[in-house]
Amino acid sequence: MGVKGIIFDMDGLMIDSERIINRAVVKAGREMGLADIESVSLRTIGTSNVRTREIYTSVYGEDFGFDRLMDLKHRYIDEMIGDGGFPPKEGIHDILEYVTKKGYIISVGSSTREWAVKEFLGKIGVSKYFDIFVCGDMGLRSKPCPDIFLACAEKMGIAPEDCFVLEDSPNGIRAAFAAGMKPVMIPDMIAPEEDILPMLYALKGSLKEAMELF
After folding, report:
1. Domain with 201 in it: what CATH number?
2. N or C: which end of the chain has fewer CB within 10 A?
3. Is residue 105 domain-shared with residue 206, that is, in the same domain?
4. Whole-model pTM?
């Protein structure tokens, strides 16, 4: 049986958000005097809000002010992007149109909260391609656990081994590999390290390059 499903991550894959979010977090962290905020922020890429809190509190302690950090982050993000939302990644409209016409069943598997996923994808005009959304606030374990992607496969009615996963982050690739799927990495902020390379079905430089897989 051929591959019939494609699961799309959102941040850093469909929208150019990771750099903006990271800049906002670093600015907020520096304002709060948090040491090594640059590297700690990178560890949270591809994870849920709950997991992000766990990472920050493991470094800075339970009472360092996580909620204040997030409030400042969101304020700076709003200043950076305004009402237009995050810009689309180059090629996202083309690949979604292409795989839809080819008959693939597609879904969104994101660690971001559902309201934000639908809002940001709506702002770049790609929500129409998706009926299935599995997001970080739906009670599932965050990436790198496979739960989000396995839930996508179940909702699509497709066996995990028949699913591609398009991801930009190492946490997402680990989740896709653990789910028994075909992980395709299109790196954004973080290049794949040696432990990630054996997990990859393919490594592509852009969404346009990834289209040749389908």
Report:
1. 3.40.50.1000
2. N
3. yes
4. 0.90
